[in-house]
Amino acid sequence: MRILIDGRMLCRPKSGIGYYLENLLVALGEVDQANEYTVAYLPEGPEGPYRRFSYPNFHASLLWMPNKLSTRLFRDSSLPYQAMRRLNHTFDLVHEPAFEPLPRAPRSVVTIHDMILFRLADHFEPAFAARYQRRIRASVENASQVIAVSQSTRRDIIDILHVSPDKVHAIPLGVRREEFQLGVPEVEQNAELKRVGIMRPYLLSIGDLYRRKNNITLVRAFARLPAMLREAFQLVIAGAPKEREVLNELHTEIARSGLEGKVLIPGYVEESLRPLLIARAATLLYPSCHEGFGLPPLEAMTCGVPVICSDNTSIPEVVGGAGILIPHFTDPEAWVGPIEQVLTDQEFRATLVQAGRSRVQEFSWERTAIATLEVYALAAEGKTGR
């Protein structure tokens, strides 16, 4: 089978979708030598990610653009409408990993990572939310099969878009365990952490700074911790500032609470630093109001880092019983006791670490790839689930 995959997300700084796509492609290359894969990408994208797909059945296809302006415009538009239409007829199956609308075709797959633009529409500008809601609807309607990255997202797709359950398949993400095996001496690790402003043990929240990430609750919870813990630990809130007003609110709350120097917001964390930042954390805090999957808790458990997180949407699917789930996750007081216990009760902490290490054994990119191949087979047969 000849499979075409939209690779534009590999041409950007890594985010959730880009991370998903890169790891899925690597895993497909490891488990599948029968099918032929072509990854379509833009001419201005870095070539680095494509060099790692050095499998004989993997190929790259440059999407020709007449000029740089066209490339920039095309980066944020729907890939299939022009270039993909020219390529479509030479492939048996098309996979769109970032919910761009595909031309209606009997053999196509789209991955939907979350339904936040429906569930939390009031967090976005109305015109922006409406535009992307239309794109997601068109993606799901036109695809013959749909992949959701969690059962929670699958339920949202079925309930909100009124899609047949037979068409939507929940395939959880994996984790690259070797990525979190730090092969660097501790003195070099400490130097890297100091470079971004981390001077002592720290609590970590990691992810792009959106309102739904609910980091303001963590600042307020940290302010309520006993003085001894506030002095011994920093709170690090790492991630690209996607919403300027959210960043301003965090800085205002930090100043109001007298936490300057105790709460660090280092911004976007480069991919090379991410494993170290997670692995050295005293605990991972994940207070998000909505997630399509939630990779940071899985990555933290891989490193033996205890996880405290919101009890909502897909997060319990990832953490299971291996972390502390907070039902009232917007209440700062609800976080204080669990944080204090994880930081001071070594026996309890060890229990969480062991439970987390056991939990991550249930997730791998190989399993993700094998399940994705099963969906490809359904799409190739022309099954639509309608």
Main sheet record: 7 strands, parallel
Number of helices: 17
- Count of DSSP strands: 13
Low-confidence stretches: 46-51, 65-76, 78-83
Question: What are the secondary-structure elements, in order, as H or E?
Answer: EHEHEHHEEHHEHEHEHHEHEHEHEHEHHH
Q: Label the structural class.
A: alpha/beta
Round the Cα radius of gyration to an integer and report it: 21 Å
Tell me the helix content. Answer: 40-55%
Strand content: 15-25%
Task: Characterize the overall form.
Answer: globular
Trace the largest sheet across and list its strands: 3-2-1-4-5-6-7
List the main descriptive attributes of the protein structure presented here.
386 residues, alpha/beta, seven-stranded parallel β-sheet, 43% helix, globular
Describe this structure in words.
The structure is a single chain. The chain has helices at 16-31, 48-51, 68-75, 83-88, 116-119, 126-142, 151-161, 186-195, 215-224, 227-232, 244-256, 274-279, 295-302, 315-319, 332-344, 346-359, 365-380; strands spanning 2-6, 36-41, 58-62, 93-96, 108-112, 145-148, 168-170, 202-206, 234-238, 263-267, 283-286, 307-310, 324-326. The protein has 17 helices and 13 strands. The chain is globular and about 65 Å long. Helix content is 43%, strand content 15%. It has a 7-stranded parallel beta sheet with strand order 3-2-1-4-5-6-7, sandwiched between helices. It has a 6-stranded parallel beta sheet with strand order 10-9-8-11-12-13, with helices on both faces. The chain is an alpha/beta fold and 386 residues long. Helix 13 links the parallel strand 11 (283-286) and strand 12 (307-310). The longest helix has 17 residues, at 126-142.
